[in-house]
């Protein structure tokens, strides 16, 4: 019973730190901190979404970056069509991600284990090469966005701080939504399907329907992260949905602790901060990053958040 207040306090501290970061950046006169933090928030949304199916549904998706790309290209395609409002970009991203997730999820969920991993990877690579072939949007080189999304017709998000707080509000809202989902009857059935799908089916639940619904919800959440990444970089390319990106999302979840929504947010934060810090130290930073990941996996099965929790 002690874990609930501990996790609540940890969530409060983490989100309070996110809320205060622009003030800290202003005090240090370092605007780059806000830019990096916005990127972290976007990836935290994606890691949160992946952990919803990985940690609670037992679905190891190695193609979740496809939804990042769908969200990012929604901004580029709709903006070129004259639709610039952020809410419409998000709705477009959710619609595209939902269609892709329903089709690919319905097929992928008929497999298990390594086969599920490989088929999600295959679908993501299909999406990747589809967008590579879109010469109208730069093909493999991508396309630069002329402006960021607007809010109520106003270019509010051209200001980095405004974009940051928008991403922060979205992350906070999605985190609270994910917590509510996992604690609901739906979440308990999803977890039960992960542990023993045969028993869940025997007592009257359809694991496939619950898993597919979770898969679609996760994909839609990840597409929102893609919308924020496109606005943060003012650039969109197929690289957003490359298989390396999917691997990075899995690493973020492992860093924070699988099956721990707050851990997914913390894992994305720690992984990206480590990437920035190690890149300053050496050009061979991936080697050091890999060593740290190995140590985390060996000595803390529930990630860095579990490691620190046991020592508090």
TrEMBL record:
GO terms for molecular function: branched-chain amino acid transmembrane transporter activity. One of its GO terms (cellular component) is plasma membrane. Keywords: Cell membrane, Membrane, Transmembrane, Transmembrane helix. The chain crosses the membrane at residues 36-54, 66-83, 89-107, 114-137, 162-181, 208-229, 249-273, 285-301. It is a multi-pass membrane protein. The keyword Membrane applies. Its main location: membrane. It is found in: Cell membrane. CDD domains: TM_PBP1_LivM_like. Pfam families: BPD_transp_2 (PF02653). The keyword Transmembrane applies. It comes from the Bacteria. PANTHER family: ABC TRANSPORTER ATP-BINDING PROTEIN, HIGH-AFFINITY BRANCHED-CHAIN AMINO ACID TRANSPORT SYSTEM PERMEASE. This is Amino acid/amide ABC transporter membrane protein 2, HAAT family. It comes from Paracoccus homiensis.
């Amino acid at each position: 019973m002690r874990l609930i207040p501990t996790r609540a306090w940890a969530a409060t501290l983490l989100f309070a730190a996110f809320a205060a970061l622009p003030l800290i950046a202003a005090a240090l006169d370092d605007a780059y901190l806000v830019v990096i933090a916005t990127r972290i928030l976007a990836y935290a949304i994606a890691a949160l979404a992946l952990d919803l199916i990985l940690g609670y549904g037992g679905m190891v998706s190695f193609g979740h970056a496809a939804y990042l790309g769908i969200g990012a290209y929604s901004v580029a395609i709709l903006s070129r069509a004259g639709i610039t409002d952020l809410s419409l970009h998000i709705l477009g991203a959710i619609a595209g991600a939902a269609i892709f997730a329903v089709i690919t999820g319905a097929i992928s969920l008929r497999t298990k284990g390594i086969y599920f991993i490989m088929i999600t990877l295959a679908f993501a690579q299909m999406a990747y090469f589809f967008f590579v072939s879109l010469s109208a949007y730069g093909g493999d080189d991508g396309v630069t966005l002329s402006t960021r999304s607007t809010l109520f017709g106003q270019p509010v998000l051209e200001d980095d701080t405004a974009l940051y707080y928008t991403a922060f509000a979205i992350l906070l809202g999605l985190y609270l939504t994910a917590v509510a989902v996992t604690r609901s009857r739906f979440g308990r059935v999803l977890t039960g399907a992960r542990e023993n799908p045969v028993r869940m089916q025997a007592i009257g639940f359809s694991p496939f329907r619950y898993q597919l619904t979770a898969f679609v919800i996760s994909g839609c959440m990840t597409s929102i992260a893609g919308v924020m990444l496109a606005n943060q970089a003012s650039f969109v390319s197929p690289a957003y949905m490359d298989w390396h990106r999917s691997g990075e999302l899995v690493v973020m979840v492992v860093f924070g602790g699988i099956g721990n929504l707050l851990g997914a947010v913390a894992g994305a934060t720690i992984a990206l901060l480590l990437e920035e810090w190690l890149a300053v130290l050496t050009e061979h930073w991936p080697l050091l990053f890999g060593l740290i990941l190995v140590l985390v996996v060996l000595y803390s099965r529930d990630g860095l958040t579990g490691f620190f929790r046991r020592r508090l």
